[in-house]
Amino acid sequence: MLLTSLGGKAMTRSLDMAGRPDPPSGDCKEEEDALSERFRDRVRLFAFRWVGAEDSEDVAQETLRRVIGALRGGRIRNQTQPAAFIFQTARHVCMELRRAHGRETRALERLEREGIPAPVLNPNPLRGPVSDRLDLTTLAMRQLSLEDQHVLRLFYVDGWGNAEVAGELGLSAATTRVRKHRALSRLRDEMADDGSAPGNP
Amino acid sequence: MIPPRIPRIIACREVQDEGLDALYLAGRLDALEILAFEQHCFRCSICWSLVTHGAGIRAASQADHTDIPARTAVARALGRSPAPGGGSVGKRS
């Protein structure tokens, strides 16, 4: 699909005199944009958990920059399955950032000890991969039946697993799975009716 | 610290059977499970879709409790009593 064609072109692309991969042609650029679009939110959510909201976008940008560089240079072994490479790259970027933050924190602590106040960090907890769809989700939830809302709340607001929800509802695990699936489908439909639902990645 | 390796491969069936997406969003998986689940989501668009919708529901509820009917109110309307201690759950056993 996406990476099959991208990979074929990337593998045959030559390096310039400085050892950098050639810039992409028009088709490749579109495919690279599609790749970024497809994986950006996944990287952001991954980074959101490991390095926090403030740095998640930076991690996503750096990860995708490295991945696209690797694709252009033909350095991804399995170009039809880029997910594993992207995941590992995101992990590396997060680890590098955490190490850098450790150094920064130690420097700030040293400054505090020496009597110079550290800058106040002000993270916004809602700045994340889903924050721009809050209103849409809320409106869609309102349109669902009370039963659908109840099931989705048990899973996603209360954070229960399938067995716990099944116990609460007095249903079998299989039926609970189906209820959840159907409630989510109806939520997706409601969001799609609004015309701005997120498509399946 | 980010664990150095992935302990196992998670399949879609396991995500559905256990509701791993909800447990992940609630922070009820341990670090290695989180990493394995996230790796799965990089490969699987269906499970990733579960996470994005679940995260939306969770964030919308946290952003404004008045917009989405409270769990107790919904349970009452359905003729059920919410289980005690709902919403404050620890790591799964």
Radius of gyration of chain B: 15 Å
Shape of chain B: globular
Q: Largest chain interface and its two residue counts? A: A-B, 59 and 53 residues
Quantity of strands of chain A, as a count: 0
Report on the structure:
With 201 residues, chain A is mostly helical. Chain A contains eight helices and no strands. Chain A has helices at residues 2-12, 26-51, 53-72, 83-113, 134-143, 146-157, 162-169, 173-193. In chain A, helix 2 (26-51) packs antiparallel against helix 3. In chain A, 35% of the residues are buried. Chain B has 93 residues and is mostly helical. Chain B contains five helices and no strands. Chain B has helices at 12-18, 20-25, 31-43, 45-63, 71-77. At the A-B interface, helix 2, helix 4, helix 5, helix 6 and helix 7 of A face helix 1, helix 2, helix 3, helix 4 and helix 5 of B.
Comma- or semicolon-separated keywords:
heterodimer; A: 201 residues; mainly alpha; 8 helices; extended; disordered N terminus; disordered C terminus; B: 93 residues; 0% strand
Per-chain topology:
The complex is a heterodimer of chains A (201) and B (93).
Chain A: H1 2-12, H2 26-51, H3 53-72, H4 83-113, H5 134-143, H6 146-157, H7 162-169, H8 173-193
Helix pairs in contact in A: 1-2, 2-3, 2-4, 3-4, 5-8, 6-8, 7-8
Chain B: H1 12-18, H2 20-25, H3 31-43, H4 45-63, H5 71-77
Helix pairs in contact in B: 3-4
Offer a concise description of the structure:
The complex is a heterodimer of chains A (201) and B (93). With 201 residues, chain A is mainly alpha-helical.
